[in-house]
Automatic annotation (TrEMBL), chains A, B:
Its EC number is 1.1.1.169. This is 2-dehydropantoate 2-reductase. Residues 13-159 form the Ketopantoate reductase N-terminal domain. It comes from Drouetiella hepatica Uher 2000/2452. Gene3D superfamilies: N-(1-d-carboxylethyl)-l-norvaline Dehydrogenase, domain 2 (1.10.1040.10), NAD(P)-binding Rossmann-like Domain (3.40.50.720). PANTHER family: 2-DEHYDROPANTOATE 2-REDUCTASE, PROBABLE 2-DEHYDROPANTOATE 2-REDUCTASE. It is an enzyme of class 1 (oxidoreductase).
Length: 332, 332
């Protein structure tokens, strides 16, 4: 295990992107007595004056006063900077991250997809990045008003240090991950600490690629997709390609590695999806609200990594191509 | 070349399915002085009383009197029985064909897809089937009222005789094909006589599978699909799989065969599509009008034949699965 410098105690947090996800976790952290600074765009005036409101099955809460900012240059440097924007906004990160990150702080990437930590590492250094995978159903229903529906847990994984140009080497459960976990658990968010962020991200893609992608192309909820034999079979085939892609990428780095998405994981995910409350995926919500789709982070990056590792994933590629067409037309 | 018995001269025609396609060709044949008998369902009363109307860039025509029938048992047995139904109605053929087919007559299958002749051969005998591939843009805009937009040519191919359980052996340009060609050409329809119906059908699938399928999944015209780089690439990949499927099926019958879709055919089809008037494909018209989709004839049958020949076509399979989902939901 690599040893990184500990984070300061108590830790301060910055939330870049106070939407359904950033607003939820940020509000919970502040509610637990942790100092949180929120970056906002369109909701800035509302939140500065009225604070944040959170509806949740765990209990509703109003935070009448929050530290709200429109510009990172006005924010104090923080110990943990949470990237909670959509990945389609990541071209802004080179400007957003440096001013708000403390010298010994870390960036916590709470975004979907693969390869985002690589981009963040280029900005802040590879030793200052932690990844997080959120399992959360939450919507922003009005400015500063978040409705939490279901789930909330996060899987944390340390990005480690890039060595010989290779990224995502497994680096175990680091102390700084545990410190962040402590803060979130204090805020009532269950945390799973993964020893291997790369595999954790591919595992999440096993679900995200088929169900986010097909929900847009087929205009369907998770329930409708699972109820149709053809679509369930297609989802399973797509999942098999994700597992294949993960294996190829791991093999390309180290042919003797045993890192892998476990084979039974596909069936686990299918059973879990069959049982879950029918809902619109995050990509479908983006599509229906005419926001840009996270096609590159969720499908494009894994596809390109797999291709570089020498494996073609024809169904994922086809889904990517369909989403690129539908996403572009949706923005006209 | 196999020699079949000549058809009688002059020949009488039955049209099973007097819609955009059957109505168009039937009206043109009757206009040329050929005896044509039309089977109708919902439009029967209208056509019996008012005849058929055809709008066309080649000239509008009204046929105030046509032989119209609601039941095949009332029709005289004909020399050429044209199947112009949608393939989704083909479960009716065992009842429709025998009463209307003369002892020495042939069935001319003017439908999309693959494997339809095999089904027809089971009903009337494999030596009594000719296939035809129509290149036609035509709509039925009201009962007995057809609007012809563009194209009209037909590629004819004789089905031959099933030997040792094998179907679609190439059997050259037979006399009966030439007789049918003479009638159509007299009616102003250009005819191309193919020596190999199987390859002719796969060639048509090179266009039909990507553009019919994607037009429904992406809700797009041919023009929109060709204007988008991702979709154009996807169409090309799908075309490559069609060519692969054809090759595998030919190889499975005769490993030494040189029958094939020529390699340059994909580029020819892409260029042709880029230049054509933007239009909604037949499957998209069916989808928009909430009719059943011809998914099995156009994608399911070729997929199953290719699978039996030992080749997987992942993109076509995925398109098939997506169309099955969308088609089923469209019928609710």
């Amino acid at each position: 295990m690599i040893t990184f410098q500990s984070l300061q105690n108590p830790r301060t947090y910055a939330i870049l992107g106070t939407g359904a996800l950033g607003g939820f976790y940020g509000a919970r952290l502040q509610q637990a007595g942790i100092e949180v600074h929120f970056l906002l765009r369109s909701d800035y005036e509302q939140v500065r004056q009225q604070g944040l409101t959170l509806e949740s099955p765990d209990g509703n809460v109003t935070l009448p006063q929050v530290y709200a900012y429109r510009n990172v240059c006005d924010m104090p440097p923080c110990d943990v900077v949470i990237v909670a924007l959509k990945t389609t906004q990541n071209h802004l990160l080179p400007d957003l991250l440096p001013p708000v990150l403390k010298d010994n702080g870390v960036v916590l990437v709470l975004q979907n997809g693969l390869g985002i930590e690589v981009e963040v590492a280029k900005i802040v250094g590879s030793d200052r990045v932690v990844g997080g995978l959120c399992f959360l159903c939450s919507n922003k229903i009005a400015p500063g008003h978040i409705r939490h529906l279901d789930y909330k847990q996060i899987t944390l994984g340390d990005y480690g240090i890039e060595t010989n140009g290779e990224s995502y080497s497994p680096c175990g459960v680091t102390e700084r991950m545990q410190q962040i976990a402590t803060d979130f658990e204090r805020a009532g968010i269950p945390i799973d600490c993964a020893e291997d962020l790369f595999i954790a991200r591919w595992k999440k893609l096993v679900w995200n690629i088929p169900f986010n992608g097909l929900s847009v192309v087929l205009n369907a909820t998770t329930h409708e997709m699972m109820a149709d034999d053809q679509t369930r079979t297609l989802a399973e085939k797509l999942m098999e390609e994700v597992v294949l892609g993960a294996a190829a990428c791991v093999r390309a780095i180290d042919p003797s590695s045993t890192r892998a998405v476990p084979p039974h994981f596909i069936q686990t995910m299918l059973e879990y999806t069959a049982k879950m409350t029918p809902y619109r995926t995050s990509m479908k919500l983006d599509y229906d609200d005419r926001r840009p789709l996270e096609t590159e982070a969720i499908l494009g990056n894994p596809l390109r990594m797999a291709k570089q590792a020498g494996v073609e994933l024809p169904r994922i590629e086809m889904l990517y191509q369909q989403l690129k067409f539908l996403g572009a037309r949706n923005q006209v």
